[in-house]
Each structure stands twice: as structure tokens, then as C-alpha cells.
Amino acid sequence: VSNPGTGGLFGAGDGYLLLSNSFPGNYGTANAGPDYAGDWLAAGITQVRVYLNDVGTNEPFEIHCVIGNDANFWQYKIGFLPPEHAWSEFVADLNDAGNWVQIRGTGTETFAQALQFADHLHFRHDLAPYISGPDAISGDLGIDHLLLTNGIVGVADRPRGVGRPVALAAPYPNPARGPVTFPIEAFDAGPV
Fold first, then answer.
1. pLDDT in tens, 52-98
2. Cα distance between residue 65 and residue 94, in whole Å
3. How many angstroms from the chain centroid is the CA of residue 66?
4. How many beta carbons lie within 10 A of that of residue 78, not counting itself?
5. Which of 23, 121, 157, 183 is at 20 to 30 A from 69, Cα to Cα?
6. Which band of pLDDT confidence, cut at 50, 70 and 90, is reported for residue 177?
7. Is 148 within 8 Å of 42 (Cβ atoms)?
8. Are 16 and 8 in contact (CB under 8 A)?
9. What are the counts of helices (DSSP H) followed by strands (DSSP E) for the chain?
10. pLDDT (average), residues 156-182
11. Does residue 39 contact residue 30 with C-beta atoms inside 8 Å?
């Protein structure tokens, strides 16, 4: 696992998490720190959004999201197929427990309990049947812009350009009881 420091979702200068291995082995990464730990239900988290990129030689990756804790792991049954040399967004929907399968536990734990006591977030290569460990593969996979969200779409930031002044003259007629005119002078083409 490394960070190339450039080539992420936002291009030059944007790093990303690179998972790389030269020989086939159990392939995946996990975060067991406090970053993603907590009660996801109480926090209103309904989606895990992530961008993936098969950054090296094209590999038959099937990446799955896994959440839970040491005693109760659940894996999203829908596999993510990252494109070669391009970033693509994938979403794991937490609202439909039917799309999740328990891969660790006694069978008495629920998906809701995994969300309530989450302290692990994994991304791993796995093919059915799903078991406790990931499947073997070699290759290079990029992970970027991981977001735990409630699914409400926001307005993305736009690059801010340096604006030029706009001259606004006094309205006329003045005084007025009806419509008035405001002469505007813009110093470059474009919307005002």
C-alpha cells in the first residue's frame, strides 16, 4: 500500500491509495482505525462511495466493500469492476440488507448490528462463494475519494476563476414608479 502523490481522481498533484502486489495473494486493504468506526445507523450513513481505477495492467478485479467488526463482517454482494487507467465511482447501498452477505460471525448477528458497531472498512478482491478471506490476484488498484454519506447529492465545488469587475451605472429613469434600466458594462465575454 502506498500513495503515488499524483494521478488521483483530481489529476496531477492528487494522491490516492495504491494497492499493489507482484505475485498472486489475498488481495485487499482494510482500515481498522477510528476513521470509519462508530454507529453508522445513528450517523445516517446509507452509502459508501468510492472511486476505483485498475492503474496497472488490466486485471480481472472484482472488488467488494466489507463492513463490520471482528465478530460480524458483511460483504456487499455486488462486485465493483474498476476500469483500466480511468477513475470510476462505485456505490455500496446500505439500505438493502439483501445485497449483503455475512462472511464472519455466528449467523445470529444482523447487518444492522454490523452497521451499529462498525470498526472496519475493507475493499477486497473476491469471487463467489464469499468466505472470510479475500481471493488471490496480483495487480495494481487505485482507491480514491472514499465517502460515507446519507446519499443526498450535493453540489460539487467548481474551480474559482479570477473575476473581472462589472460596472453598474445608476438606474434610470430616476425617480420611477415602474420598470427601470440598469446599464451594465462587462470587461470580458461571459455570464454576469
1. 999 988 999 999 999 999 899 999 999 999 999 999 999 999 999 99
2. 11
3. 14
4. 15
5. 23
6. confident
7. no
8. yes
9. 2, 11
10. 69
11. no
CA distances from 89 to 43, 80, 142, 158 (A): 22, 9, 12, 19
pLDDT given at position 154: 59
Distance CA 138, CA 160 (A): 41
Residue 162: pLDDT over 50? no
| Inter-residue contact 65 to 50 (CB < 8 Å) | yes
User: Look-up: residue for cell 462486485?
Assistant: 79
Map grid coordinates 507482484 to a residue.
22
* pLDDT tens by residue, 27-41: 999 887 888 899 999
Beta strands in 70-157 (DSSP E): 72-76, 88-93, 100-104, 120-125, 136-149
Helix (H, G, I), strand (E, B) or coil at 56: coil
Q: What is the CA radius of gyration of the chain?
A: 24
Instruction: Return the amino acid letter for 154.
Output: G
Q: Which amino acid is at 150?
A: N
Report d(CA 67, CA 41) in Å as an integer. 13
pTM check: above 0.90: no
Q: Write down the mean pLDDT value for the chain.
A: 88
Query: For the chain, how many residues are written?
Result: 192
Cell of 147: 465517502
Measured in whole angstroms, the distance separating CA 19 from the mean position of its chain's CA atoms is 16
